[in-house]
Amino acid sequence: MTTRPATKPVLRPSLMQWGHRALRLWWRLRRPTTYGVKALLIHPEDPGKCLAVRHSYVDQDRWGLPGGGYNPKRETAAQAAVREVAEELALTIQQPPTVLRTLTTELEGKLDNLTIVAATPAAAGFRLNAELIEARWVAVDLSDLPAGAPVSRWLKLARSAVIGEEGAADGHREDRDDQDQRRRDQDSEQAGHGSERQPGGNR
After folding, report:
1. Residue (of 128, 131, 104, 130) closest to 115 by Cα position
2. pLDDT 10s digits, 66-89
3. What is the Cα–Cα distance from 23 to 139, expressed in whole angstroms?
4. 89-147 pLDDT tens trace
5. Is residue 186 predicted with pLDDT exceeding 60?
6. In sequence order, what DSSP letters do the residues of 26-37 get, joined into one string?
7. CA 169 to CA 186: how far, in whole Å?
8. Cβ atoms of residues 41 and 66 within 8 Å
9. Does the pLDDT at position 3 exceed 80?
10. How far is the C-alpha of 41 from the C-alpha of 89, rounded, in Å?
């Protein structure tokens, strides 16, 4: 059973970070409609644990969920989740993911239709690709994460849906998160080099 945190040196960090900045600028100028998916992975041998990850190209300190964008004309959100998990973690999802939450956000200027799913991989061992710098199996209540560590709103929502909590999914909380997100984005852009650790939309 894999319990040790897995870390990996970031490959091409500057290229990926600058690429994400360019995307954010395009989103703000064009305000496109996009589709994304996030996956809460449940440990195959211990349903009390889930997988938390940190991304390499944006918001590197924040613990969140694997996932990414997809084209709804080519695949469903569930299919996209299976693909993203395979690409980012080399994990295989055998059973169709369960949809936990669907919502629409306007972070970073785009209108993003986000689906959060839960799924259980066939095995616990994983391998990180260049998009991730760390992943670890933690308690679903997130008590295993370092004290004070920032946590993605999507991980909080997914965890709340799984354990039946209502508070973290409150709409007012989401509005405040959006406002905080925008302030952090603005501060990061003004700080120059600090933007390399800027929070990304939908992380």
Report:
1. 104
2. 999 999 999 999 999 999 999 999
3. 34
4. 999 998 999 999 999 987 666 688 999 999 999 999 999 999 999 999 999 999 999 88
5. no
6. HHHHH--EEEEE
7. 25
8. yes
9. no
10. 11
Cα–Cα distance measured from residue 22 to residue 26, given in angstroms and rounded to the nearest whole number: 6
Average pLDDT value for residue range 29-40: 85
Copy the structure tokens of residue 58: 């944006």
Cα 52 versus chain centre, distance: 9
Cβ atoms of 134 and 140 closer than 8 Å: no
Q: Please, what is the average pLDDT of the chain?
A: 77
Q: Do residues 15 and 131 make contact, with C-beta atoms less than 8 angstroms apart? A: no
Burial of 193 (0-12, 13-18, 19+ CB in 10 A): exposed
Residues with Cβ within 8 Å of 58's Cβ and at least 6 positions away in sequence, in order, are: 17, 20, 198, 199, 200, 203
The torsion of the CA quartet 150, 55, 80, 202, rounded to 10 degrees, works out to 40
Six-digit token string for 152: 């993605």
Please classify residue 153 by burial: count the beta carbons closer than 10 Å to its beta carbon, then call 0-12 exposed, 13-18 middle and 19+ buried: buried
Nearest alpha-carbon partner for 131 in 35, 46, 13, 14: 13
Q: Which of 122, 58, 42 is nearest to 90 (CA)?
A: 122
Contact between 54 and 63 under an 8 Å Cβ cutoff? The reply is yes
Tell me the CA end-to-end span of the chain in Å, nearest whole number: 27
* DSSP 3-state percent helix, strand, coil across the chain (nearest 5): 35, 25, 40
